[in-house]
Amino acid sequence: MKRLALVLASLGFLTACGADGDPFRTTGGVGVNVDSSGNVTPSARVGATNGTFSVGVGL
What we know:
Distance between the termini: 47 Å
Low-confidence stretches: none
Number of helices: 1
Number of strands: 3
Largest sheet: 3 strands, antiparallel
Order of helices and strands: HEEE
Shape: rod-shaped
């Protein structure tokens, strides 16, 4: 039982510090667009990246 707990704790530590690869960083942004007719359109995006792989969604 102690061995299992030690293995799980070690895996958790490795995952948290990024030793098995780069940790994911969150990304985000907001913006406002105004077109030539004066229409204002807000925008927002959120996502995550590890430098090689990125995933996100825009609203």
